Amino acid sequence: MFLFLLRRILLVVPVLFGLLTLTFVLTHLVPSDPAATLAGDQATPVQIAEIRAAYGFDRPIYEQFVLYMAQLARGDLGFSYFTHRPVIEDLSARLPATLELTFFALLISVGLGIPLGVVAALNHNRWLDQLLRVFSVGGIAIASFWLALMLQLLFSMEFDLLPLRGRISITGDAPPTITGAYLIDALLAGRPDIFGDALEHIVLPAATLAFGSLATIVRFSRSGVLETLQKDFVIFETAIGYPRWIIIGKYVLRNALVSTITQIGLLFGGLIAGAVVVEAIFDWPGIGGYTAGAIFTADFQPLLGVTLLIGAVYAVVNILVDLIHAWIDPRVAEQL
What we know:
Layout (H helix, E strand, L loop, with lengths): L1 H28 L4 H6 L5 H10 L6 H13 L13 H36 L4 H15 L2 H15 L23 H7 L3 H38 L2 H8 L4 H13 L1 H25 L4 H10 L3 H29 L1 H6 L1
Helix pairs in contact: 1-14, 5-6, 5-9, 5-12, 6-9, 7-9, 7-12, 8-9, 9-11, 9-12, 12-13, 12-14, 13-14
């Protein structure tokens, strides 16, 4: 197991390097001039040229990349021309909000998706199965920005049940910063009032973000359970009189959820990517809005910092998924 972890960690390094290289090249191929953005609309060509030379934008792209990697090796993610702060400070301030939203959405997807997939499989080709299949197809097809707007119109503006935007009420106090996640910090501080306020604010953006992943997990869970129910060991255990709930809970799920668990790791990256749109609509103060601002202002160093950070988080989550995979299926652990 230790060698497996070491091998996976070592594989992360070239993956992140390739990701950074690709992002660096793509951002510099975009027909935009960060020097002109920094100089402002009233700047003269001479002033723009001076800024371009001062920040090294006039150097060849390979030289800029070498300088950036040397800077990164010192633990420096650079400086944002948009916020006028170090990138690492911006990411440290915004990442907890994005992770809280992403993990809450993942919790909704897994907590509802697996049971619904099992129910669909156990009611194969019945009306409930057909209904859940329509739901799963619709969940994948519906655009997150449209769903976000509809949920806001329905639950915030029509029925006034949930907040329209933000992470906490304007008149409310944020919990003492411990982890940066308001729900966890409120519980640790013993503030149920702040916890309830933060929970109300996260429901709509998390539900929007979770909808597509929920549909995917339902489909994979249903497929896995249906396939496992046809296995010889399930037929044998049914024949000798094992109660159905024991067969499903102890044997079928353990074998059926292997592919679903693997898919959860892949979905995590999609959730982080989808958070950019959702955060913009719900005014959620995470890295989504930060990334969008960096794109609009051609602020390259924050984009590279976000890419590196998301890549690292995604790698860690997938390593954890592999460990859970090995725990669920001991045959995988033997191969490690």
